[in-house]
Amino acid sequence: MTLALMLKEQGIASRVYEAAPELKALGVGINLLPHAAREMCKLGLEEALAKVAITTRESGFYNRYGQHIFSEPTGRYAGYDWPQFSIHRGDLHMVLVETFKARCGADRLMTGWQCTGFEQDDDLVTLHFVDPRDGSARPSVKAEMVVSAEGIHSKIRKQLYPNEGPPRYSGINMWRGVTKWKPFLTGASMVRIGWLNTAKVLIYPIRDNIDGEGTQLINWVVDIATESYKSQRDWNKPGRLEDFFDVVKDWKFDWLDCPALFKAADAILEYPMVDQDPLNQWTFGRVTLLGDAAHPMYPRGANGSAQAILDCRALTDAIVKEGDPVKAMHAYEAIRRPATAQVVLTNRKNPPDAILREVYERTGDKPFDDINKVISHEDLEKLSTSYQKIAGYHKENLAMSPAGV
């Protein structure tokens, strides 16, 4: 949707083929950091997103005893020209869908069209589809260029790399949920708590005042180091509270009762933290990959969504500059493939919550009397800044960089 809207602004027609027969507001929370929000604002979507999202004020880090380690402002509160949004994934999708229909035309969104593969010659690509409801064949479609934005289960990526093998498991399993809850801290705070050897928890609000009495919808994620995981990566797999609750049952702080929050969840999902090794090539003739189809990465630091959005900007700009689709796709890949590979690899060893790991190791997972005796504020800032630069949203670098880099 984002790519199609960017292309439309440049007078370039496209059509979106979506496997789902019906578009619904599914999923849990997602974050749009300033580098992704910049692109949404350029598309004129800031007001629409602000109505359904939380404009995040701060990012805070705590140990598993609820002791404060470090906080920093986010988005415009940190001096960026763009906000940071914490939003329900389904709300983001619906904003994009309704905008697409209004600007591009509802007839250019084809739902219930599942791609099964392609073939191409020098001039055109032929795509093949089925109806996922009954497996019946749909008419084949010809196009000058094809962008696989199919996500982690991309059929086009599978055709290009049939022997790639299964995803790479990180050794971390995740449980995710959303809970109706009263605001905590600022009411627009994102917090990271603990570390993986016991558990690491991420919590932030994604909808405000859902009942007219100030109640919010709170998104939470529990990550626990787990030796093996045999299930496939499926964002919609139901999870069980009892599989992780004992580890966090005592995480009751004066600013938030975590076990009560988890127990009150509307639903729980389970997902292994996985990625794939970076590819050496995305573009083949008139076909290229984008987003998770190109660079599936650990769901850390809001980078899955952000890097996909940056892909969209880079590809759009390349098409405008180059004119020729094949040259444009190669130019896009030359910019985005190295950048996203760096994020994939950094997420494996130095994630955005490396601050928690550093404090965990320095304290031996014990409470501290004074955080300044454990680690200096300057060192904490350096850890945060280092990841921001890799991911592409450090304030000074973002102000100077072109979009999509």
From TrEMBL:
Xref: SUPFAM superfamilies: FAD-linked reductases, C-terminal domain (SSF54373), FAD/NAD(P)-binding domain (SSF51905)
InterPro entries: FAD-bd, FAD-dep_Monooxygenase_BioMet, FAD/NAD-bd_sf
FAD-binding domain location: 1-160, 279-344
The entry's keywords: Monooxygenase, Oxidoreductase
UniProt superkingdom: Bacteria
Protein's UniProt name: Flavin-dependent oxidoreductase
Organism: Shinella yambaruensis
